[in-house]
Amino acid sequence: MFYLISLGVLVILILLCLVTVQQGTVAVITIFGKYRRVLRPGLNFRIPLIEQIFKRISYQNRSIELKFQAITQDQANVNFSAMLLYSVLNEENETIQSVAFKFVDERSFMQALVRSVEGAVRAYVATKKQSEILQLRTEIILNVKEQLDKQLEGWGYHLLDLQLNDIAFDEAIMRSMAQVVASNNLKAAAENEGQALLITKTKAAEAEGNAIKISAEAERQAAQLRGQGVALFREEVARGMAVAAKEMQNANLDASFILFSMWTDAIKHFAENGNGNTIFLDGSNENLQRTMQQLMSLTQQSSIVKNSGDK
Question: Which of 179, 198, 203, 248 is most buried, judging by how many CB atoms fall within 10 Å of its CB?
């Protein structure tokens, strides 16, 4: 019987000596309240009733969600929704001691951590205007990490990441910002429309100018061709009249007969090509004689020009 009791006590003592530490955690051992050592993951041995497990500490990553307000330089309230990711700095004994003994309990540490993050964000936001906050998400995170890294290292922790998931203003401010954006969009649309109208009118003016240039050039060429045609016509008329005068001289005919024939042919041409227009001609004897004299004078001049050209 005594043997069984002794065996049972031995088994109990052995079991009390064995301590299992889960992966990702360490156990802080104290002797009579004083730090002794750190037990690593796995099966460990301790002195029963003397070595006590003061605290089990996880060095895995941990996260917490934060919601708080800050005030900008121009007195606008900003609502932040953030996610904080942190962990124990490393597994060294000094770090584990800081984590185990810096704070009375986990609640005190969490309160200090949250207030430190909120204070750093508020201090930075207080130096900025509301119009700048939405564009400074990355700068806010970097500023907070820079300020808290050394402080958290003294506590044995490391700030891995800070995500500002949402940055929102009060409803009145959001409405005013939306109005500003809408007015800026309308202004940009009006400017674009004005530029488009200016480009359209400019292109139309250029096209009209090019059309006028082309039309003027065509008119110039047409006028030149008409002038050349009139010159050729006059040249042929002069040549024909010279030939007719020469033949009349050779045939001993009165030049007035051919001139009268030419005059009547001209009247016939007027009638055929007048397109319904009315042409008034003086048919009196005096005007007929005057016309004949003019035609004879023109014939004589043509003959003189022809003879000069032949010489």
Answer: 248
DSSP single-letter state for residue 251: T
Question: What tens digit of pLDDT does each residue of 93-141 get?
Answer: 899 999 999 898 889 999 999 899 889 898 888 888 887 888 888 888 8
Which residue intervals of the chain are DSSP H helices? 2-17, 93-101, 106-125, 130-133, 137-155, 171-250, 255-273, 285-310
Q: What single DSSP character describes residue 40?
A: P
CA of 221: how far to CAs of 33, 212, 225, 235, 271, in Å?
116, 14, 6, 21, 30
Burial letters for 223-248: b for 16+ Cβ neighbours within 10 Å, e otherwise? Answer: eeeeeeeeeeeeeeebeebbebbeeb
* Separation of alpha carbons 155 and 280, rounded Å: 123
Q: Are 102 and 109 in contact (CB under 8 A)?
A: yes
Helix axes 137-155, 106-125, angle to 10 degrees: 150
Looking at 57-136, list the stretches that DSSP marks H as alpha helix, in order from N- to C-terminal side: 93-101, 106-125, 130-133
Structural domains of the chain sorted by starting position, each given as residue range(s) with its CATH number in brackets:
2-58 (no CATH), 62-169 (3.30.479.30), 229-310 (no CATH)
* The predicted structure's pLDDT at residue 215: 80
- pLDDT value at residue 269: 67
